[in-house]
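Q: What would this chain look like folded?
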Amino acid sequence: MAGALIHMKLAVMRRDISGARSSWVFGGGVIGLALAVGTIALATLKATQQSTVMDLIAVVLGVWTLGWMLGPAYSGQPVLRGEQFQLQPIPRHRLALGLFGAAFVGVTAPVSLVAFTVLVAFAIRLGSGVSVAVAVLAVVLQLAFVVLLSRLTAHLFGALSRSRIGAAVSASLSAAMLVASSSCWIVFVAIHSLAAAGFSHGISITVRSLPSSWGVLAVEASSRSDWPMTVVPLSGLVLLVLLLWVAWNRSLGPARWARPTVRGSTAERAMVGGRMLSGATAAVFIKELRTWWRGPQRTQSLVVSPAFAVMTCLVPLASHSTVFLPFLGAVTALMSAVTAANLFGQDGTAMWLGLLIPGSERADVRGRQLAWLAIYGPMSLALAALGMAVGGHPELRPWALASTIALLGGGAGLLPLVAIDQLVPGPDPREIKSAPLNHSDVTGQAFVMMVMALGTATPAVGTVLLGQQLHNPTLRWAGLAVGAITGVLSLTLLGRAAHRSLATRGPELLYLMRTGKEQRTRSGEGASFLQAMPKHRQRLFWSTFSVGCVALFPQALVPLLMKLSGKAARVWFLALYMPGPWQWPVIALMFVLGVASFGLAARLCVAEIRSLRS
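A: My prediction, written as structure tokens:
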């Protein structure tokens, strides 16, 4: 039985490697191996005390275990599940054994096995042959523990996959992963400081009491010939694996999950809404508000934006810097536009309902814009006020408010235009689940939205910068008016361009939604500029875009704001490591490099769009 399921898993993997998710598979494998090698390197860390290295390994193993627990919320349920075989005459214990064997086939289990060999490296460091043998046994038990734990959490997230709770959990995980990938430098700072100072006694005891740390305890105890403390953690792991096995075995029966229900609005509320608003635009507005509240995918956008903003602005607190807190609202507005960039694609083939009504395009676009503003406008402004109140820095308030207002207006204007021009087909709402990897790949669309939204905020931020350079407070605060004007213009003009594009391309967009991304790419009809771009130009585009992101934002704008506020934390900002007279030239150089990189990326995009149109 196990052999047959392993062959089935391998067949699915071959399809993933050759399909649209191949970049995710290879990229995830490379990143996972890099993290695994970094985990092993912890065993060679020079620290003041041996217990510090032990605690660091325990913390990292806990992070790997947490990743296995929360992984199903991001990647979705396993490809082979118990309910798929409930009509087959297979005993439950045989099915459990086969699925357990198939769970080790893939990328995650081998990568985790490499990471867990940090226990063997730690045992070699302790210089005991018995410790090495204990470490090998602990690695096997640790891998079995995380695999079974992941299967059970996958069962749980499967029950929540279409509910708002599951969407909120997936969104929080996505936000945490985005923040971790953009702020990974703090890990090296923390490891350096912990290697010198060590953990406090309370944190050390808490970390060592977790099941993910029991293998480390057994290895360390065996090096001291403390056999009771060697046997007890290993026995605990064995018992925990057996308990997880029994629980997972019982969970393989027929699924009895309640189907998630969504309560509709009462007749009274609909009537009140009807009195307050009228017309086609009002109908779309109310429909969109209800969709934002009901749809799991929209719930993810509602959670990701503020969660990402809060976590991103709290990261600099590790360096005792509150310079990012006033920009809570601006980051929320920017991420709200980025996460909703595929607004029309999220409707699926339901797009035909609007296309059957002649002249409904303007109301459709305006209603979506107003609904997005009604949801994210108060949220962004409230977070901006909270960040300014908590973080202080009165000199940054014009920057924060001007960028927030401009990004709200620019995002509302760009939202339908990008969603129509760069539509990415995906599953219909009735088939969609909360796991982000089960959604459409909107990476390119999100990057386009981010760059264009930042462009709409440039006039407002430039006005504030000009007032800063001229030491003119009135001109600095005039940036708010400039942001409001550019926001209104973006909302009006870009919205007009969007509903005209929808009227022209509506049937074509519906065709794209019905055929799907792979067929669209093969046929070439309606392919986006990124899909039609040659591979070498795609590599050049993403390279220049990545260089622009790194050079312009963390290496130019962030040090600029720190210098202006008078509270600079060097962290990983190159300019702040330079001697005083060289800091401003380095910031200017990074700014020019970032703008030039974005300019080259934009030129590639424009050239490809013109080629497609011709």
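The chain has 25 helices and no strands.
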